[in-house]
Amino acid sequence: MTKSDVMRAVRITRHGGPEVLESVRVPVPVPGAGEVLVRVGAVALNNTDLWTREGAYGRPDDPQARSGWRGPVDFPRIQGADVAGHVVAVGAGVDEVLVGRRVVIDPALYDGDGPDAHPVGLMGSERDGGYAEYVTAPAKQAHDVTGSALTDDQLATLPTAYGTALGMIERGRLRKGETALVSGASGGVGIALVQIARARGARVVAISSGTKIAAVREAGAHEVVDRAGDVVGQLRAAAPEGIDVALDVVAGELVGDGLPLLREGGRWVIAGALGGYGVAFDVRRLYLHNAQVIGSAMHTPAHFDLLMDLARQAAVQPVIAAAFPLEQAARAQEELARRGHVGKIVMHP
């Protein structure tokens, strides 16, 4: 492979709707020192793709500002955080034994080298991602899953959705025998939360709606309440002794309404704001019951190592809702935004 080689990619040069996604031919990236070059087998879509494209993250000093995940996006930017594929080349200082290995890339940019480092950036936002035929990544974040029974499509769904889910479960200290509430249970993170919490031996009470309820039950939820009805009333009936850990990607009014459902010492973990980022709750429900509200953004390196162990064992079975060719990235993102699916949407370069 030479520097003159080109590849197909989809990138954005500004914030906006699906129309800002450009299908282009660009040079194949060259792996730097400590990096690998991966031929993308599959790339999964996430809400972060939509929000980065729209600039919907806001800034601490201006919640309405157009911004990427952790600040202004350096355009042009190739989107796509979640990649499964094969290593085809390595940079200086990287063992060539990696060439040919099947890998999943940890897409986080961390604030340090330790196992508990915090993610402060994301592939597809703060560096180029996998909406392309090839992508580079730090070699230490290309995890060898060569022996996994999961398909490339399934492996590609893991980094952001399952990484976020596992980060929430770890930060919420969910234990066997506890009752977990999962909001937004039919989405990518929601299905991951249901599957991992069930595998941990928790009793899972999920919130979903309509035709998706059966699929959420099939994923492992013990009880599913319909968000179109009286959610709090249904939750009280489904978990009369209360909730130990809420795993919440919805936020909004659910936080204020749901906090009184927590048991003593309960934990409410938030990793999304599909229901709105403006939250109000009775603070007495927090301090009088030794409860905690915990923010959770993605995963740590230690969490991702645990996730890759699950991948190698095929201990979770990601649900694929649809697959699109790379050239239909705009259509794929529109499908994601409609939220009519259960599981994950992937693309094939």
How does this structure look, described?
The chain is of the alpha/beta class and 349 residues long. The protein folds into 2 domains: 6-160 and 299-348, Quinone Oxidoreductase, Chain A, domain 1; 173-295, Rossmann fold (3-Layer(aba) Sandwich), CATH 3.40.50.720. It has helices spanning 47-54, 152-156, 158-171, 188-199, 213-219, 231-238, 253-258, 284-287, 301-313, 329-338; strands at 6-12, 21-27, 35-44, 77-78, 82-90, 102-105, 108-110, 119-122, 134-138, 142-144, 179-182, 203-208, 223-226, 243-248, 262-270, 292-295, 320-325, 344-348. The strands form 4 sheets. Strands 3, 5, 6, 9, 10, 17 and 18 form a 7-stranded mixed beta sheet that branches. It has a 6-stranded parallel beta sheet with strand order 13-12-11-14-15-16, sandwiched between helices. A 3-stranded antiparallel beta sheet has the order 2-1-4, with no helix packed on it.
Q: Name the CATH superfamily classification of the largest domain.
A: Medium-chain alcohol dehydrogenases, catalytic domain
Query: Might you state the CATH topology name of the largest domain?
Result: Quinone Oxidoreductase, Chain A, domain 1
CATH second-level architecture of the largest domain? Alpha-Beta Complex
Q: Tell me the span between the first and last alpha carbons.
A: 18 Å
H-E string:
EEEHEEEEEEEHHEHEHEHEHEHEHEHE
Count of discrete alpha- or pi-helical segments spanning 4 or more residues: 10
Number-wise, the strands total: 18
Highest CATH level, the class of the largest domain: Alpha Beta
Arithmetic mean of pLDDT: 95
